[in-house]
Amino acid sequence: MTENAATEPKRSIWLRIWEFPLTAMLFAILVVILCAGLVGVVQMQLLVPNLEPSVGMIVSTVLLVALLTAAYKLVIRHLGGKKHDDLPLAGLARESGLGFAGGAALISVCVALAALFGVYRIQGGDNFADWAQIIFVFGLYAGFFEELLMRGIVFRWFEEMTGTWIALAVSSLLFGFGHAWNDNATVVSSMAIAIEAGILLGAAYILTRSLWLAIGLHAGWNVVQALWDVPVSGNPTSGPIAATLEGPALLAGGGFGLEATIFALVVATSAGIWMLVKASKAGKIVRPMWSRKGEPITAY
């Protein structure tokens, strides 16, 4: 036992239960569900009957992000034994912008490799009819909502319990198989997302101890993927160009898109491992609670 631990006042059993990582995680998830449910009611009762579908989509997405941001600042960041703000205003523009550019570059490298191997071909222009879905659903919603839930809540409090490596494995698998119900999804595509995106986005959070880089990476990858007319996790869209993605499943994704190919596995996973190495050298790795022996978390 450390000197600090020995001199700390004894906390009540109820406070210890309330601040336990699993309790904090479950309560935070409940807050997210309540926010999503409230926006869903507003969408069905007010937006759908009164607005055009694309406008309603934009309004509901922005409303959800705003409500979740408020809930995070007012409630979620104060949960658990170690208080921490994963959405600091200071890093919003720089880290999210850098992440968006990085995500755009990574998926563009995958597209270039697919073109080099002859499975991706641009056919011409398209009408960009799904611009609202591409920007606000695949970009803003997926980037913010999914990262807040998977990295800002699930990974964060699993890490406090089990340490960085187990938390990274668990959150990655949950994230990957959370896409198992998408169109054209297979066990292979779910495992691919678990490995490439789970490691990449988890590493971004571990390195920065903020969600902004992960949010930017996620949004940039999705938006630019759709702009290249590649299905986003199995969801085809109509963007500014028309292209085909045909060939062996290992190279073309079998209808799910490039996320289920060797290209994404190599490119995204390599970037994630690079960030993990940097995070490890910077002392950002958390040990499991059973090996800390009362010592505080020092990774952030």
TrEMBL record:
Keyword Hydrolase recorded: yes
Membrane-traversing stretches: 20-42, 54-76, 97-119, 131-150, 162-181, 187-206, 211-228, 248-277
Record GO terms (molecular function): endopeptidase activity; metallopeptidase activity
Domain of life, source organism: Bacteria
InterPro entries the UniProt entry points to: Rce1/LyrA-like_dom (IPR003675)
Keywords from the named record: Hydrolase, Membrane, Metalloprotease, Protease, Transmembrane, Transmembrane helix
Residue ranges of every copy of the CAAX prenyl protease 2/Lysostaphin resistance protein A-like domain listed in the record: 132-224
Single biological process term from Gene Ontology: CAAX-box protein maturation
PANTHER family: MEMBRANE-ASSOCIATED PROTEASE-RELATED, PROTEASE
Protein name in the entry: CPBP family intramembrane metalloprotease
